[in-house]
Amino acid sequence: MDEIIEIRDLKKSFGKLEVLKGIDCKFRRGEVVSVLGPNASGKTTLIKSILGMVLPDAGELLFNGQPVTNTFEYKRHIGYMPQIGRYPENMKMGQIFDMMRDLRQEHAQDEDLLKTFKLESMFHKPMHTLSGGTRQKVSAALAFMFNPEVLILDEPSAGLDPLASEHLKEKIKEQSAKGKLVLFTSHIMSEVDEIAGSILYLFEGKVRFFKELDAIKSEAGEVRLGKALIKTLI
Amino acid sequence: MWKIAKYIIFDIIKSKVLIAYTALLALISVSIFMMDTDVTKGLVSISTVVMIIVPLVSVVFATTYIFNASEFTELLVSQPISRKDILLGKYVGIGASILGAFILGVCVPVSLFAFSVTALVLMLVGCLLSLSFVSLAFLAATMTSDKAKGIGLSLMIWFYCAIIFDGLVLLFLFSFNDYPLEKAMIILTSLNPVDLGRVMILLQLDISALMGYTGALYQKFFGSGYGMLFATVFQMVWITVPLLLALRIFKRKDL
């Protein structure tokens, strides 16, 4: 089966505010999907619903064809990199990695990012002494560490230095070539242009379009994604 | 659940606030015993401190820790771990740390200087109070979504238990002066974990005669083994009920 995540008529309100007004979409293995949309369009809520952090009011979330709302086992197949990663302040970096291995009861299968980001040399440092960028590197390394089938990255390159952000892009491309689904949000159009295969555009809690990147560009007759998006949306 | 608790304890024992709290409790206990040769008086002084400081620090420290770890909780929720295990793991971790501070700061000096039945009751009451206020902190933190509101609510809970409640009881006594209130008083006492603890300790000190007729009734009720059991069970209720409510809310909470 090719589809790994299917979302059916997902609805969510916070009080009177309707954030998601019925989202339908399917994500396939090997895809790199960029979730775009203006502020408050429901991007974060959608991602958090897939991760089970936000519990939907209506609709279904299917993982490998199974409904998974209110369950947690499916999260074994997801690697998540949050926008702001904060960890227990007094623990050392090495302990954080040990802890995640222990909690998931899995061995680390992919420690490439630990090496490329040179994190091992900082294993003895307590988390509260680390800069925001280093914490992002920790989050990224954790997301990829258990070789999950789905990667969900929230603003992955925010706070990363240019070199690290290049490494991360390479890693994303490599994983997608291996048949992993990558879902990510970003505000940097050049980055989306470079790594995304398709774009899920949300607007006011609904899917405005879900198209392949090349299709958007050729329909708009533009080479650059930013301009093509503006033409498509007008 | 136990793994989460283990890592939270690893994190908390290095926290400066907890170390300071332990040191403060130890300093108070030791200095009280040093100043006064009468250990019973010393125990009374310590129990006063226990009734005020222990609930305050337990509730505020736990609420603050829960909110500071909110991003970490989100990360845990994104892992294949059930929400129940996450919340109970956090409870065991935070509860054990606060309890550890109380044991080191109060139980150890008290057992060294003034080991007696009264001292044992004091230790038991302090431990139960620590746990019930951590429980209340979980309830306050899951009910609110914002750190300032959460800490505000937990301070309100402490303020109610430590100060306002006594005023309300007094008001109640004055208003219904003409009726027999003894049984009602026992029920009222159960509505406040701090009062319950205070009664348990005072009755061990044989000063209930100073508390008039109600005191005599208290002595008859709480002074018996049955009454002690009743009070302990009610303290347990103050631990489990807020925690179960917090668990119910947390299972449906959007993070």
Topology:
The complex is a heterodimer of chains A (234) and B (255).
Chain A: E1 3-14, E2 17-28, E3 32-36, H1 43-50, E4 58-63, E5 66-67, E6 78-81, H2 93-104, H3 112-116, H4 132-145, E7 150-154, H5 162-177, E8 181-185, H6 189-195, E9 198-203, E10 206-212, H7 213-220, H8 225-233
Parallel strand pairs in A: 3-8, 3-9, 6-7, 7-8
Antiparallel strand pairs in A: 1-2, 1-4, 4-5, 9-10
Helix pairs in contact in A: 7-8
Chain B: H1 2-12, H2 16-35, H3 39-68, H4 70-77, H5 83-113, H6 117-143, H7 147-175, H8 182-190, H9 193-202, H10 212-222, H11 225-251
Helix pairs in contact in B: 1-5, 2-3, 2-5, 3-5, 3-6, 3-7, 3-9, 5-6, 5-11, 6-7, 6-9, 6-11, 9-11
Q: What is this structure, in a nutshell?
A:
Chain A is an alpha/beta fold.
Structural write-up:
The complex is a heterodimer of chains A (234) and B (255). With 234 residues, chain A is α/β, with parallel strands linked by helices. Chain A has one domain (3-233): 3-Layer(aba) Sandwich (Rossmann fold). Chain A is built from 8 helices and 10 strands. Chain A has helices at residues 43-50, 93-104, 112-116, 132-145, 162-177, 189-195, 213-220, 225-233, and strands at 3-14, 17-28, 32-36, 58-63, 66-67, 78-81, 150-154, 181-185, 198-203, 206-212. Chain A has a 6-stranded mixed β-sheet, with helices on both faces. A 4-stranded antiparallel β-sheet of chain A has the order 2-1-4-5, covered by helices on one side. In chain A, β9 and β10 (206-212) form a beta hairpin. Chain B is an all-alpha fold and 255 residues long. Chain B contains 11 helices and no strands. Chain B has helices spanning 2-12, 16-35, 39-68, 70-77, 83-113, 117-143, 147-175, 182-190, 193-202, 212-222, 225-251. Classes of the chains: A alpha/beta (234), B mainly alpha (255). The A-B interface holds A 14, 48, 51-55, 72-76, 78, 80, 82, 84-91, 95, 99-100, 102-104 and B 3-4, 7-8, 10-12, 14-15, 68-69, 71-72, 74-83, 252, 254-255.
